Each structure stands twice: as structure tokens, then as C-alpha cells.
Amino acid sequence: MKNLNMIFAGFGGQGVLFAGKVAAYAGLIENKEISWLPSYGPEMRGGTANCSVCISDEPIGSPLVTTPNVLVAMNLPSLDKFINTVEPGGTVLIDSSLIDKKVERIDLSVHYVPASAIAEEKGLKGLANMILVGKLFHEVCAANGDFGFCTRETLDQAIQKCVPARKAEMLDFNRQAVELGAACGI
Amino acid sequence: MKVLMKGNEALAEAAIRAGCHHFFGYPITPQTELAAYMAKRMPKVNGTYLQAESEIAAINMVLGASAAGIRAMTSSSSPGISLKSEGISYMAGSDLPALIINVQRGGPGLGGIQPSQSDYWQATKAGGHGDYQILVFAPSTVQEMVDLVSDAFDLADQYRIPSMILADGMLGQMMEPVELPEEGAKQPVEKTWAACGHENKREHNIINSLYLTPDKLESLVLERYERYEIIKKKEQRAEEYLTDDAELIVVAYGASARVARSAVNKLREQGQKVGLIRPITLWPFPVDTLKKAAAHTKQMLVVEMSMGQMVDDVKLSVDCKIPVSFYGRTGGMIPTPADVQAEIEKLLK
To answer: Which residue(s) pair with B277 in the sheet?
Structure first.
């Protein structure tokens, strides 16, 4: 696979760090080299939260992603902050129920997923992040392209690793959200 | 199977598995997860987690625990280490082993909370007052953080000297897969010097750093410096990466070394002969590795997240026989591989 350098970004509480962790765990289960680096500090409190996730066959150098080939944006400030850093040809996933704007760049593959609206409608409030993860895996990670590295089973195991035991009841909701995301827009 | 862990949490778990059941700390970003993890885990191993009233109290609790012969540690970030430096000097002066972790952030003063390497001088030269050194380890991955914890404890015990792991906010906050060692590692040294209960079966031990007679104090310092010489001979560590045919060698440690490695890889793809030396011990500084490399390379570039605090050590190691340049960012800024690559390309022209 080609090196996958991802940024998950949104505001605090949307679960962007969790979404990144699921992706990182999927890489771990597939025996890839991986790193997960969060933004931390004041910017997390009320501002934008984001994390860098690298998945590769080679040891990871800098874990800080400065030119992502995948961007998951869950609010407008995040989209504005990172859209011009995405590598030409990169993939961008946008929660279109929270971001009205269309991406002007024409060298990117952009997916507008009304993740928050779907989550609300299906009784999965707070799981817009996992709907986007579902879409991400369908389009990029589980696909046959350059960046494909895992199966849906792997993703499922990764979710099991990331949902803490004390919130075991959330496991099925997370799975449902991923299913919805994967099926979205096909 | 490997688990995903934050650097801060991995350091904590590794310490517990290395037999450290006494942690004394005080919260500060970006090391707080370490203390939080200890707070959760220590009661489960019948250990002691104590959040002291200040950094100064915490380090002196470590001093007390270590004097009683048990493995103890503390952790902090840059401004907190400044406060702890008095206690570290007292431990050095009392020949006490302990592990101190510094998850560096930008300075000086309260500075910022983003990753930095601007405590190099503090760690390797001038933490507190007096003639003394401490062991300083600089991991660059979460796995290496785990591996170095038990080494840092063991060598501290062996030489009766404080050990420091000099990490930074990036390494502390990031998650990588790690393999943890088994619990209950063997501790190599019997601490016959410890000031602990002995039922009057031996002479009592005294742990002290106050010596008012100059010749006595001098002789103690000289004895300590003999140990430092042994450490300098035996304990230097560095990793060499693609240095054999390198015309330019980057010297970088910790998080900077990761960035530098990415730049080296990019340039190698383009056929440029560049390599990397990554000091793993900052004290003792890996003089031998650098000296050897200086004999077959043309120049070196030091890359740091500081204003160049390691440059002097590199220049001294290579006896100023080849040019040594510097590139760095500071204040919490992290250099990108592209920045480092551009700097190398400039030097190769």
C-alpha cells in the first residue's frame, strides 16, 4: 500500500480523536506501522480538535501530518484550515449537514456525507464520526486502490478495541453507524 | 499482541512493570496522562500514587523513597523540572537512584504547551547546582520509551545516580503500537546502602548531601566523577541510519530524529548520500559514534526543536574537524521533513 496520511478534524466532542483511533487500530490489526497524534491543549477546548494518523508499510517518520492524502472534516473551521494542505488527488470527506461550503479545488475526490443528519434520523446521535469512518473505509481503506489495507472484519475488530468495556452497549450503535456510512451515496 | 498506547501511558505502565511502585507527581501539560495513568494503576499493584502539593514536594518524596531503597519516580514537563532540579541535585549529592521523566514543552518561563527540546542543557549540563551529572535517555518511539524505562532504572541503581528520560509533548501525546515487558522484572542490585529498617543487625546507613568539610566533600565528588568516567566509557548509545557512505550526516534525537529520518529517506530516494545519527543517551553523549563518523563524512547538520543546544556537544565530539551546521524550530513549533530536506539540499550545493 501507499503511505496513508490522514487528518481527522472537527470541534471538541464530535469524536474526531476516536475516529482516528479506530483507523489506527485497523492498521495495527493488519500489522502495519501506524501512528496517531492528537492536537492537545487550548485548541481542543471549544476550538478545533484534530488528529494525525499515519498508516504505512515502513516505520513512520514524523507523525505530524502536514500534507494529508485523506482529510475528514466535521466543521467549517477545520475544512478551511486543512483543505489547502491536502495532496493533489487526495480524498476529502465532509459532514455536509454541518458544512454548507463546497470545495473549490478540482484535483481532489470529495465526498459530501450528511453524517450528522443521518445520525440524528437513525437515532445514532453523536455517531456522525463513525458514519464518516464507514464512508472512509468504503472509499479508501477497504477499497482495492493504492490505500486499501484492511477488510470490514478488521474494521469491526478495531471498533471493538476502541469502545471501552464500560460502554459496551455502544458497540452495536458504532457498527450501525459504520454500516450506514459505508452504504451512503452508493 | 501489540497494543496502542500513548507515550505518556506507556512510560507509566513500563515503570510499573519495571518494579516501580512509588510515584510522586504534580500535574502539568503535556505529561498529565502519565500521572493520571499512575493514579489508576498504582492501587491495583498495592503501590503508592501521590499527587504532592508541589513539584518540589514531589521530588523530595522521590528522594525519601529512594533513600529507603525502593524504586521511585516522578514525571513533569519543563517548568516543573526546573522546580524539581533542586531535589535532583540533592539526589545526585546523596548518590540516590531514581527515574525522572521530562515531557518537554516550549520555554523559557511558563512558555507554551507544545512539543519542544529546549531543556537539553538543563538535562545534560545544568539542572541544579553543583558538580554532578545524571543519565539522560532520549527515546524516539513509544516502544523505545517502554524499553528505556527499565534500562534507566537498572543503570540508575547500578551507578547510584538519577536517570532522566527526556521526551517531548509529541512523544508523550502520540499513540503507537507497543509490546510491553512482563511484570516483575528482576532488579539487578541489592541496595545495602539503603536507610531502611534493619533490627539493629548492622551499622545504620546515613543518606546525606551536606558535607561541611571541604576535603571530605571534594573526595566524594571525585569518587562520583570516577563513576561518571566509567559511565562515559560503557553506556553511550546511538543509532546509526544509512551513515556508511553518507557525505552529510544529520544528528538529531527524539521527535526531531523522526522528522530527520523522513527527510533522509526522501533524499536517499533521489540518490543523495545522507544519513542520520540518533543519540539515544544524551549523557553520556555518544562521542565515540560521532567521532568515528566524522572520519568518513564531510559535514554534519544538527536538527533540534530548540535553538541548537546540542550543537556544542556534536562539535566537541568531532573535534571541530568537519563543519557542523544547525537547523531548528523552537517555542513548540515542529520542523517538517520538507524543511529539513531543504536545509540539507542547501548544504549539499
So the answer is: B240, B251
pLDDT (tens digit, 9 = 90+) per residue, A119-165? 999 999 999 999 999 999 999 888 778 888 898 899 999 999 999 88
How many contacts (CB atoms, under 8 Å) link A and B? Answer: 62
Q: How many domains does chain A have?
A: 1
Per-residue pLDDT at A45: 57
A172: cell is 452495536
Q: List, in sequence order, the alpha helices (H) in B4-160.
A: 7-17, 32-41, 55-67, 78-93, 120-124, 142-159
Residues B230, B263, single domain; the answer is no
Q: How many domains does chain B have?
A: 2
Which residue does chain B place closest to A27, by CA atoms? B177
Domain boundary among B234, B265, B298: B234
Mutate to test the interface with B, among A28, A40, A57, A159 (most CBs of B within 10 A): A40
DSSP alpha helix (H) spans, B94-141: 120-124
Looking at chain B, the number of H-run helices and the number of E-run strands are 12, 14
Q: What's the whole-model pTM score?
A: 0.95
Task: Name every chain A residue with its beta carbon within 8 A of the beta carbon of B10.
Answer: none
Q: What are the C-alpha distances in Å from A35 to residues A163, B116, B219?
A: 19, 19, 49
Given a cut of 90, whether residue B14 has pLDDT beyond it is: yes
Percentage of the residues of chain A whose pLDDT score is greater than 70: 96
Q: What is the mean pLDDT of residues B273-298?
A: 98
User: Can you list the residues of chain A whose pLDDT is less than 70?
Assistant: 41-47, 186
| Chain B: closest CA distance from residue A38 (Å) | 7
Q: Which domain holds residue B315?
A: 239-348
Largest CA distance in chain A: 44
Q: Does A66 touch chain B (CB under 8 A)?
A: yes
Residues B253 and B164 grouped into a single domain: no
* Residue B91 to residues B54, B159, B162, B206, Cα–Cα distance (Å): 18, 13, 7, 13
Contact B17, B183 (CB under 8 A): yes
Q: Mean pLDDT over residues B166-193, rounded? A: 92
Which residue stretches of chain A are H helix?
16-29, 76-82, 115-121, 128-136, 152-162, 170-183
Check CB contact of B266 with chain A, cutoff 8 Å. Answer: no
Among residues A56, A66, A64, the alpha carbon closest in space to that of A23 is found at A56
Query: Which residues in chain B are closer than 8 Å to A40, comparing Cβ atoms?
Result: 29-30, 113, 169, 173
Does residue B184 have a pLDDT over 90? no
* Domain annotation covers residue B280: yes
Long-range CB contact pairs, B320-326, < 8 A, 24+: B321/B294, B322/B294, B322/B297, B322/B298, B323/B298, B323/B299, B324/B299, B324/B300, B325/B299, B325/B300, B325/B301, B326/B301, B326/B302
Domain containing A137: what range?
4-183
In this structure, what CATH number is given to the domain that contains residue B179? 3.40.50.970
Mean pLDDT of B98-125: 97
